[in-house]
């Protein structure tokens, strides 16, 4: 089963994805088969237009739902899909397979093939008494591709994904016991009654001591420490995906009903409160970390 397999990316994958996103001014996201974000080109939080749609209209749930539906359709058709998202921009998603087995999806998007913004989304925008010109201008900031340019860009993107796979920059193997425990914790972290050493031992058909010793040997952590760190990492992923979600709601998604207790736990591990991390995400301070720019490229026409 794929859920018992580990997925590993060579660092070259991030560089290739970053380079493509940089040249075409698009957002690229690599998802696992269960829609976990694995790689984001340039760590791009999304276009100004999409941020307005998600934050001002509070429609991020619609974006996430559509991503999932398009990936599911892509899996059924076993071929790339190109489509207009609910707000108007164009996106494409293609399956990533190794030896014929689906291991994830590559999504490229937030560009346009039309000059005018959708009237439907404009009506929603105006319905909450926001200035239409603000949304129109943000839409026009998206890169515009005519059909020949779009066809060639998608051909290059498809070739890049095929190159990444055939060059074995993505590898799949069965994880060791500690990694299996991590996967189990990630799947059950929202249910505090499930997140127990006895439960994970029963799920793995191993003894409590075997689980504990394996985690300590491979990770240098106790089971409790592993649960805390895994939950904090998931909390940070949730914030990165939706910077305007409340600490309470994000903490609840990772199994903490008391946001104040979670904040204390977070600060003990990260040495700063969660509001500091949230502020850095909202201000976009992590966007260009680890990526070196050599001058600005010419603007796309």
Describe the structure.
With 301 residues, the chain is α+β, with helices and mostly antiparallel strands. It has helices spanning 11-24, 48-55, 60-77, 119-127, 132-141, 147-166, 177-188, 197-204, 208-219, 223-241, 247-253, 259-270, 274-282, and strands spanning 6-9, 27-32, 37-40, 81-84, 90-98, 101-111, 170-173. Strands 3-2-6-5-4 form a five-stranded antiparallel sheet, sandwiched between helices. Helix 8 (197-204) crosses helix 9. The protein starts with 5 loop residues before the first strand and ends in a 19-residue tail after the last helix.
Summary?
The chain is of the alpha+beta class. The chain has helices at 11-24, 48-55, 60-77, 119-127, 132-141, 147-166, 177-188, 197-204, 208-219, 223-241, 247-253, 259-270, 274-282, and strands at residues 6-9, 27-32, 37-40, 81-84, 90-98, 101-111, 170-173.
Pattern of helices and strands: EHEEHHEEEHHHEHHHHHHH
- Strand order in the largest sheet: 3-2-6-5-4
Query: Which structural class matches the secondary elements?
Result: alpha+beta
- Mean pLDDT level: 84
Topology summary:
Elements: E1 6-9, H1 11-24, E2 27-32, E3 37-40, H2 48-55, H3 60-77, E4 81-84, E5 90-98, E6 101-111, H4 119-127, H5 132-141, H6 147-166, E7 170-173, H7 177-188, H8 197-204, H9 208-219, H10 223-241, H11 247-253, H12 259-270, H13 274-282
Antiparallel strand pairs: 1-7, 2-3, 2-6, 4-5, 5-6
Helix pairs in contact: 1-6, 2-5, 8-9, 11-12
Attribute tags:
disordered N terminus; single chain; 7 strands; 301 residues
């Amino acid at each position: 089963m794929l859920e018992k397999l580990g997925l590993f990316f060579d660092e070259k994958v991030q560089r290739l994805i970053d380079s493509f996103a940089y040249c075409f001014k698009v957002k690229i996201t690599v998802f696992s088969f269960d829609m976990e974000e694995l790689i984001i080109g340039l760590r791009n939080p999304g276009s100004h237009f999409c941020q307005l749609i998600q934050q001002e209209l509070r429609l991020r749930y619609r974006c996430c739902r559509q991503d999932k539906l398009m990936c599911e359709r892509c899996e059924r058709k076993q071929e790339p899909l190109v489509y207009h998202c609910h707000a108007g921009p164009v996106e494409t998603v293609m399956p990533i397979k190794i030896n014929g087995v689906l291991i994830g999806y590559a999504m490229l998007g937030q560009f346009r093939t039309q000059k005018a913004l959708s009237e439907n989304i404009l009506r929603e925008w105006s319905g909450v008494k926001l200035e239409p010109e603000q949304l129109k201008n943000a839409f026009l900031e998206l890169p515009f591709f005519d059909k020949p340019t779009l066809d060639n860009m998608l051909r290059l993107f498809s070739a890049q994904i095929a190159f990444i796979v055939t060059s074995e920059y993505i590898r799949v193997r069965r994880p060791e016991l500690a990694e299996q425990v991590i996967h189990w914790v990630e799947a059950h972290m929202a249910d505090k009654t499930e997140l127990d050493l006895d439960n994970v031992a029963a799920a793995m058909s191993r003894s409590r001591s075997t689980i504990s010793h394996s985690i300590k040997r491979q990770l240098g952590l106790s089971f409790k420490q592993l649960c805390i760190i895994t939950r904090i990492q998931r909390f940070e992923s949730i914030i990165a995906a939706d910077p305007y979600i409340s600490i309470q709601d994000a903490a609840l998604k990772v199994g903490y009903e008391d946001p104040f207790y979670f904040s204390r736990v977070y600060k003990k591990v990260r040495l700063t409160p969660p509001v500091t991390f949230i502020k850095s995400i909202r201000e976009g301070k992590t966007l260009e970390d680890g990526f070196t720019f050599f001058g600005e490229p010419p603007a796309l026409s």
